[in-house]
Amino acid sequence: MSQNIAGKVVIITGASSGLGAATARHLAALGASVVLGARRMDLLNALAEDITAAGGKAAIARTDVTQAADLTRLVETALAVFGKVDVLINNAGLMAIAPLDALKVDEWERMIDINIKGVLYGIAAVLPYFKAQGSGHFITISSVAGAKVFSPGGTVYSGTKFAVRAISEGLRHEVGGAIRTTTILPGAVDTELTNGSSHADSATALKEFYKQAIPADSVARAVAYAIEQPDGVDINEIVLRPTVQEF
Ligand code: NDP
Fold first, then answer.
1. Do residues 49 and 25 make contact, with C-beta atoms less than 8 angstroms apart?
2. Distance CA 110, CA 130 (A)
3. How many angstroms is it from 215 CA to the middle of ligand 1?
4. Active site residues
5. Per CATH, which fold does 9-236 belong to?
6. What residues does each domain of the chain span?
7. pTM above the 0.70 mark?
8. Model confidence over 73-127: pLDDT tens digits?
9. Is the beta carbon of 201 within 6 A of some atom in ligand 1?
């Protein structure tokens, strides 16, 4: 159990794999009630069962973050099952690496829809509730690619990660008096994210780049650090990389 994590209700989007799943397990072990959203219900079910079997508390709801109504339903699930929401972790994401001249326009649109609009829909679903409650914590998963353009091939992905970093900082300006906002910028982490690139040369280069990747629980610990601070302390940004990573 951890002092300012135990008893909190934490919503996590993209919780079916990678950072989201690792963060769910870690926070649940520290006493949070976790509310898990993603599209793959079989994985969410299995994760919730694991967390419950280990003595934790979890609820799930099928969530496609490109559908604003799904985010509303995820928040309603949290309220129905656990009675409140303390933290929203906007984590769901897609990384489709390819040079612009490959013209993968449909992948640009999917990244914008999932990585940017999905984050905004999450904010929209929770913000009125946090404002009425007078407290809350938005955690946004950006990337080191949101601080530095990832190349070759990361132009649009970086664009989405710069965007959510800006949105999170703007949100802090607007609601910072009572509501905490944290942006996490991870480097290479070993997850399913590299499967999102259909461009063959980029996928091969990514495979090489990700040989240095660190485990997903590294990010889970960073998230826990942000949440466990006393309410008067807002950890605004955390950048973490594999020690050997240059980019
Ligand atoms: P994964 O591919 O393992 O996880 C991505 C998650 O997002 C899955 O749970 C997937 O669930 C979910 N997701 C994708 N599309 C949607 C959608 N339309 N609606 C709801 N959920 C969706 O990768 P990571 O864990 O690495 O990625 C998590 C976040 O971390 C992303 O935002 C990523 O950009 C960011 N990040 C990752 C880094 C890394 O090196 N791994 C580095 C920096 C940032 P499902 O398919 O079941 O819907």
1. no
2. 28
3. 14
4. 157
5. Rossmann fold (3.40.50)
6. 9-236
7. yes
8. 999 999 999 999 999 999 999 999 999 999 999 999 999 999 999 999 999 999 9
9. no
